């Protein structure tokens, strides 16, 4: 549905997207990258708001810039909110349906359909100004679906959502993708994307660093020693019990003496062994965390790999 061939976009002296080649088809694809990676630039290019400086961009086989034929089949949820806050969600969506050219009765029917698709039927009469972030995202998505587009792009839709809201919204997106739509979602948070899809485009400083299955990238990361921090009242005992495990590469104590830092290979099998030891030897652990489980580490691994 979307193809980019050697697409670059410059903003004066600044490069927003650098020689990107990719195709995006039906299903849910995540654009993953840190701030400034080029995610919004790619979305603005695909939605025809800006033109590539060089290269060829096709959406449904056509150039999207200033092309209403493409716009009719695209839905877009920008990162910013731009609602009439004193409208109810239902009135807002119906108003946009009318702007889209639907008759009053068509607009009424279609509004109910899209509001139901995003699970807002029972709450859409409340004023938008009192909505949670999750409800705002749902209404934004509802209005983007009014004209039944084949491609829907959402810029950082999970920002600020609590875990329940995030799960629910991901389920709504998953449902649309399963129905054959092409859903493109940008995010800068790795674990958010992992909950959402396996299909990713990894952007870094305007370049496409990796595409495909997130699990392959995970495997690549897991080949490197993985840092794990275990907080416990007795780090020495923890060290004694964990040192014999085959995947532990190194260990050090935290200066305050209440944590153990480890480097392990194959973190999943380490976690399996850890839970066995905790139960069998009654090792008390307050918390454990993996400072490596973030996007920066992914880039570090990929760039250095
Ligand atoms: N209108 C603009 N004028 C000048 N530079 C821009 C403009 N828009 C984006 N850029 C630059 O292009 C690069 C890519 O920005 P872009 O907004 O696409 O990244 P992003 O991944 O969406 O990041 P963010 O999550 O911060 O929006 C950045 O270096 C940014 O500063």
TrEMBL record:
Gene Ontology MF terms: ATP binding; ATP hydrolysis activity
Source superkingdom: Bacteria
Start and end residues of each ABC transporter domain: 2-230
Pfam families, alphabetized: ABC_tran
This protein's UniProt keywords: ATP-binding, Nucleotide-binding, Transport
InterPro entries, alphabetized: AAA+_ATPase, ABC_transporter-like_ATP-bd, ABC_transporter-like_CS, P-loop_NTPase
Protein family: Belongs to the ABC transporter superfamily.
PANTHER family membership: ABC TRANSPORTER RELATED, ABC TRANSPORTER, ATP-BINDING PROTEIN
The protein's name: ABC transporter, ATP-binding protein NosF
Organism, scientific name: Fimbriimonas ginsengisoli Gsoil 348
């Amino acid at each position: 549905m979307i193809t980019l061939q050697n697409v670059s976009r410059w903003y004066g002296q600044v490069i927003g997207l650098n020689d990107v080649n990719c195709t995006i088809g039906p299903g849910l694809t995540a654009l993953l990258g840190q701030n400034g990676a080029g995610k919004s630039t790619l979305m603005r290019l695909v939605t025809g708001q800006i033109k590539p400086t060089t290269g060829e961009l096709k959406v449904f086989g056509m150039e999207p810039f200033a092309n209403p034929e493409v716009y009719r089949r695209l839905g877009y949820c920008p990162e910013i909110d731009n609602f009439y806050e004193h409208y109810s969600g239902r009135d807002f969506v119906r108003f946009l349906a009318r702007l889209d050219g639907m008759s009053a009765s068509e607009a009424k029917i279609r509004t109910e359909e899209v509001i139901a698709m995003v699970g807002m039927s029972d709450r859409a009469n409340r004023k938008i100004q009192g909505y949670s972030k999750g409800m705002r995202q749902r209404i934004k998505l509802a209005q983007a679906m009014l004209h039944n587009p084949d491609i829907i792009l959402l810029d950082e839709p999970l920002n600020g959502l609590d875990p329940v809201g995030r799960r629910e919204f991901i389920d709504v997106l998953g449902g649309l993708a399963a129905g054959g739509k092409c859903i493109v979602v940008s995010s800068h948070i790795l674990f958010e994307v992992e909950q959402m899809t396996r299909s990713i485009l990894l952007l870094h400083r305007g370049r496409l660093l990796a595409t495909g299955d997130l699990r392959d990238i995970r495997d690549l990361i897991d080949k490197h020693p993985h840092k794990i921090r275990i907080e416990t009242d007795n780090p020495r005992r923890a060290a004694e019990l964990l040192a014999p495990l085959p995947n532990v590469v190194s260990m050090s104590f935290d200066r305050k003496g209440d944590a153990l830092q480890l480097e392990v290979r194959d973190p999943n099998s380490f976690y399996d062994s850890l839970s066995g030891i905790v139960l069998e030897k009654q090792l008390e652990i307050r918390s454990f965390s993996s400072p490596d489980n973030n996007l920066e580490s992914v880039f570090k691994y990929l760039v250095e790999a």
